[in-house]
């Protein structure tokens, strides 16, 4: 399929290095109306969250929404049926400046955290799998290199990753250690024959993008210290038999993204490819913070798509005396609950994004919005699915796909109960993990 990305580029690609951070937030650049008769309730933006955005953020969101609705939406159904991910999607996103969008320099757009969340929201309105592939590239791998890499690593990887020409994967989860990555078994030790190299051995599982990744950010325990370190593995430099990345097939969620394992057997990695100054779980968790933020706004996009589709269906479907389903109170309550959660979730995520750019967001705040927005998106999507009756079972009504995807968003990057434990520890001062 040929995608005329240039159409979008010509019209409105995200300006590289646009100075969003210096803009005053929360809509003060827009005059506030005081006339009550000008107040309008918009069911698509019930709390007028758009008023909190800068003009540049609105422009970024519009660019992303246009691309997603015109070029991603038409192919998602078949991709989901075939369990197929087209890596060209990352190049298309790269052409529009959507990858690593918060990064300053290295060919990245340098937009605000909120703007990057609006990108994830636009993509996830189509499919959480497309958003996952993008988030891994942008937040987990590019973000990790930008925050923790050497200057040489940044120059080597970031510009090509920003174009989507190099694809990244982030390997933290292992077959025996998911919620508890601190117990990981993957080990890095000095290579027995290659001076200046480490040898990595172990397995990672449920890794987004791993079968198609060119560069794999893998977390392993350094044998000498027992501390977790980050390593950038270049697939092209791995001798045969030292790195395998088989796909995990027959998923019942996130089928439009590609997921796999990473098997390393004495995989040689230059010492220069290790992140220099970060050890322990602080490394992976700082990448996860940004990615979790993207999920928090992203899932509100999936939920808003469910609301719009359920509303339309309820207006058109007639039962009992020719009444549309929308006339019935139980149907209205489902829509009211979902719209309320989507609106609250959006406003809360914008607030955390603003704090993040000021250096004032804590991991607990991000846990709170990630957990709440994922839980509410999954719950409401499941309830809205009922409005479609038997038709919900057909994939052409789109809602079942969101429900299956949203289960995954609630599970990965910290399952919701794990985020509850993070919050519970902060509230009580007592940790309940073990
Ligand atoms: C499609 C997909 C893509 C993914 N992509 C990536 C990726 O790119 N990179 C990556 O590293 N990982 C990825 N993951 C892995 C994901 O992050 C893990 O699945 C997640 O962290 C949960 O780990 P687990 O599956 O091992 O579950 P477990 O850790 O076994 O947890 C199972 C259940 O037990 C609960 N539980 C665990 N410990 C406790 C406790 N102390 N108290 C109470 N409840 C507890 C959990 O909340 C959960 O409900 C992906 C997963 C999926 C499904």
Please give the alpha-carbon distance between the first and last residues: 50 Å
Q: Strand tally, please?
A: 9
Question: What is the third-level CATH name, the topology of the largest domain?
Answer: Butyryl-CoA Dehydrogenase, subunit A, domain 3
Mean pLDDT: 93
Overall number of structural domains:
3
**CATH architecture annotation name of the largest domain:** Up-down Bundle
User: What about the largest sheet?
Assistant: 7 strands, mixed
Q: Give the structural class.
A: alpha+beta
Q: What is the H/E string?
A: HHHEEHHHEEEEEEEHHHHH
What general form does the structure show?
Answer: globular
Domain Acyl-CoA dehydrogenase/oxidase N-terminal: 54-165
Protein name: glutaryl-CoA dehydrogenase (ETF)
Domain Acyl-CoA dehydrogenase/oxidase C-terminal: 280-427
EC number: 1.3.8.6
Compact overview of the structure:
The protein is an alpha+beta fold and 434 residues long. The protein contains eleven helices and nine strands.
What report would you give on this structure?
The chain is of the alpha+beta class and 434 residues long. It is built from eleven helices and nine strands. The strands form two sheets. Strands 3, 4, 5, 6, 7, 8 and 9 form a seven-stranded mixed sheet that branches. Strands 1-2 form a two-stranded antiparallel ribbon. Helix 5 runs antiparallel to helix 7. It is globular and about 80 Å long. Residues 1-12 and 17-29 have low confidence and may be disordered. Bound molecules: flavin-adenine dinucleotide. Residues 136, 170-173, 178-179, 206-208, 254, 259, 408, 411-413, 415, 417-418, 433 line the site of flavin-adenine dinucleotide. Residues 169-267 form the Acyl-CoA oxidase/dehydrogenase middle domain.
